[in-house]
Amino acid sequence: MRKVGKQSIVFDNVYLKSSSAVVGPLEMQGPLAKYFDAHYDNLYCEKQNWEQAEMQLFTDALDIALVKGNLTPDEIDLIFAGDLNNQITVANYSLRDYSIPYVGVYGACSTSTLSLINGACLLDGGFGRYIMCATSSHNATSERQFRYPTEYGGQKPDSITFTVTGAGAGILTRQITDVRLTKATVGTVVDSGTTDSLDMGRSMAPAALQTLKAHLEDFQEDLNSFDLILTGDLSTYGAKTLKELAREFKIELGNNYHDCGMLVYDLDNQPVFAGGSGCACAAVVMYGYVVKQMLAGRLNKVLIIATGALLNPIMVAQKETIPGIAHAVVLERVK
Amino acid sequence: MEKQIYQKVLNNTKVKRPVVKNSLQAFLVGGIIALLGQALLDFYQLVVNLEEKVATSLMSITLVFLASLLTGLGIYDRIGQFAGAGSIIPITGFSNSMTSAALESKSEGIVLGIMTNMFKLAGAVIVAGIVSAFFSATLIYLFSR
Amino acid sequence: MNWVDYLMAFLVGGLICLIAQILLDCFRLLPVHLVVLFVIVGSFLEILKIYDWLIKIGRAGALVPISSFGHSLTHAALLESEKIGYLGILTGVFDLTAGGIASAILFAFIIALVFKPKG
User: Fold this and answer.
1) Which of A60, A96, A259, A283 fits a disulfide with A239 by CB distance 3.0 to 4.6 angstroms?
2) pLDDT per residue over A64-79, tens digit each?
3) Domain range for residue B42?
4) In this complex, which chains have at least 3 CB pairs below 8 Å with chain B?
């Protein structure tokens, strides 16, 4: 492992041993249903309140990843995890039942790749044999923390993104498997200049661009070398904005560019406004769809740029502009 | 330098709102709720034979109850998404804001949850009402002297 | 009870909401900004005696929107001040709206006890 260019890292021996994607009802009714490992038909996930529901999704993701990797919790050397709740509550409380050394991370909706980058660095640096990376999000917990009570009758504009209810986990190892984590780019905080918390997709576009640009420059990489370039949750308007922003810097995002928030839902038929968002958005698309497609030989090299809006309701009320961040990883199929 | 480019593009790609559609929907629902209010007012005054002040109060109370119930049933938020201001501006919006806030905090129990959080959204209305009533009333009071 | 009352109620009530929606969308305000604005406007219109006129022509159409809340608060404050002097503004302000507020609190509490949020 070594630093490349300004913000990037190349890994020598980091592979994905197993992964999991667990989702809620709306995601299961979306186009990627067959790529998820488990789901719940109800937002409560058979629990008593929203926070417990998200914890259920989180622990399910951990358990399924362990089973798929033929591992017990004792064999996991360390876990990097986080979520959207204040004090990353869901990760903290879920891990009460697991005695795995834990490092909590917060990257808002970029937590999935943030945790992978951290895990890969530690692993490639020689720490342990198996490192787990996990994250979750839940539509109701994030609505109630960042916006309004779920039964409030306020009108949501079309620009709003819809938090994905789900969780995803990945287990990294130095042993060779079919999916390899080859490179990463750590994002910097990029000020969107916008103050509208109802327009989050677009506010993360500058951060996504900065990380994309940095990745391409650091590795002298060509856009077309990737089968697929995915942003985390820019959704309809954010993705459009990113394409325009990229054009200003002579980067033409073509047909190999998609956004997880636009893939995870059927935008025409589901009441999800501009598309998906939340930590689980990038996580379930990456750990579910991308990994399964790679294992099936249909994808070879994917750049995943998970994006996060690092906002806080108090700061928004203080009229501060919203800072964004984007962390990128490259997954490659081992031939 | 880059920041200026970000600003330029973000300003150019602002998401448009369907103002005409939203306004007509607001007009429709706001009008219907007013119709309901008028029907209640007439019922209380003409059928139950209450005096105007009491009938008006009872009309408000009835609308508050209906909005509260619809909020609990999970229906009001759907009406709100369609109606926008049409369901926020009538007194039903006030009731919904209180009920939804109380309902959401149910998991924190009765005291720390329901009771503490009930005025989270509606508090602003009451404060604004009292403060502006104080100033308006003072002005009128002074001018009438 | 005549149909003109109902027509006017529909028109006035709808119009107030339409104006609110235009402000909401054109000025990118939040719902809470809107209701605060309308309550204040309802209160201030009492100074010009306009809201009483609006109630006369719109009946429920002017009584149902939250602007009537501002009007009622001001009206009640004035009524009491006519009886007992300036202090009446504070002691009487809730007289007309007490029913609405008390019932909102009561019903919010009961509904929150009985139901669960659906998300």
Assistant:
1) A259
2) 999 999 999 999 999 9
3) 2-143
4) A, C
